[in-house]
Each structure stands twice: as structure tokens, then as C-alpha cells.
Amino acid sequence: MTHVLDPADPVEKTALLTAALRAAESLREDRLYTDPYAATLVGDAGPRLLAEIRAATFPPDRPRSIPSTPDYNAIRTRFFDDFLQRAVGETGTAQLVMAPAGMDSRAYRLDWPAHLRYFEVDRPAVLAFKEERLRGATPRVDHVTVAVDLTADDWEDRLRAAGYDPDAPSVWMLEGLLYYIPEHDARRMLERVAAFCAPGSLVAADLVNAAALTLPHMRPLLDVFAGWGCPWLFGSDEPEALFGQYGFDVTAVQPGEPGADFGRWPDPVPDRSVKDVRRVFFVHGRRR
Q1: Over the stretch 235-246, which tens digit does the pLDDT of each residue have?
Q2: Rounded (10°) angle between helices 46-57 and 219-227
Q3: Cα–Cα 20 to 30 A to 258, which of 43, 48, 127, 248?
């Protein structure tokens, strides 16, 4: 659903960046997880992508004023790793949908129960690129890829044809998606997911607030993503209300708050009542 900088590029640079960050995290002694597939997925593009992000995040001539992308990505990955495994393990849910799949390798690097079917939904070019990079690797789960763009009118039909049952409980992971698409499309996505999952299904997503799109000190980071053809387009200051409109009862946690820190978030976390500060939310909850 994001734009590709070069039509010849099969994969969004933000997806490759996530893999690059996960590869770098896996080399740290204080790593929050290990992703043995990330370096293969990102390939030779990793150092250049990390260098661009580091230049924007840690300018040599002034203090850092934007979020620490490596720490954020590490916390986000670990938070959703834990959420997804807990969601499947504690509820007995038999189907998990990763939409979009991007360069995610959770199907390969995490342990999953035998009853689970794990769906990865993304554009055909992305899934083909990923399959080629992971050739020879074996998923640890009943793994189904659904090659369809999430902007397509028929992705629900394609997912159902692949074996997804909309009448049975499911777990949905919308990671690295909502802030890259216009508000109308983000709302439409939530509406479609809600209509395609049974009551009691679980959902998780990450989301920025509106100020994160406009604050002057965010400009260096925003310019990098815009230059890659993947600008941030949507943010919400009330993620609970946003998801609630579409039938989800959710909790929104910010990096650095209890349960979303892991000893790695370097910045203060202003109270939700404070205006004009950038925020990121990890949203998770249940379909009514």
C-alpha cells in the first residue's frame, strides 16, 4: 500500500529498512530478539539504509531531537513478537494474518503451535522477492502466502480462497502500514479488516499521532521516508477512538511506558494530555 521509489524496485525501502534494523539488533549483546533471516532479506542495501537513518536521527552538529529509530524498531518488534505469541497461545486461535507481510520473518524465527495457519498478505512482487531471498528456509508453521495488493477490491476473496475462515477467530497484525497511507485508506482498511474477522478476534497495529507528521524537528526523518517514496500520511491522537469506530476495543501503549520499554527507550514519555509532541502507539485489542 506504500509507494515504491523506483518502479523497478520490487520492495518498499521501508520494508528493507525494517529488515536492516532487525539484522543490526540481532548483533547487539543487549538485543531484544534474534532475527537470523533479516540480513539475508535486506541484502546489500542494509548499510546504506541504516546510514541514511542514522544521519537523520543522530546529527553530528546538534542533539538528537527525533525518536531513536533503532531503539523504536527493537521495542516494536519485541512487543509484537510477545503479543502475537501470547494471542495465539492463550486463545487457541487457529489463524493469523500478517498484512502486509513485508520482510517480516516471524513465521520462520518464532515457535508456533501446530494448529496455527499463518497467512502472509502482500503484493506479488514483494512475496516473490522474499521467497527468493529465503530460498531453502523452512517456516515453523503452516505458512500460506496470499499475493495480492491490500488496495485491491478483492483481497478478502483471495484470502478466503487461501483457506482463511472469516467466521472463526483470528489474529491480525497491521505493522508498518497505517501511517503510510492516506486517512481515508487507513479507515477503509480498518473497516474491511473488522468486517472480515469474527467477534473475539485480536488485532495489533502501530500508529503515529498527528503531530508526528508536522513538527519541525521531525522533518529530517520525514524527509528520508518521503525521499524513498514512502511519506508518512496519517496519524491519530486518539487511537482507541479510531479503532473503536470499527468495532475494536483496544489499548494504546507508547514506547517507554510499562510493557513497552524493555530497558531500551531513551526518551521521556509525555502524558497523553500534552499537546504538540510526537508519539507512537502500539495498539492492540479485540473485535467486539
Answers
A1: 999 999 999 999
A2: 150
A3: 248
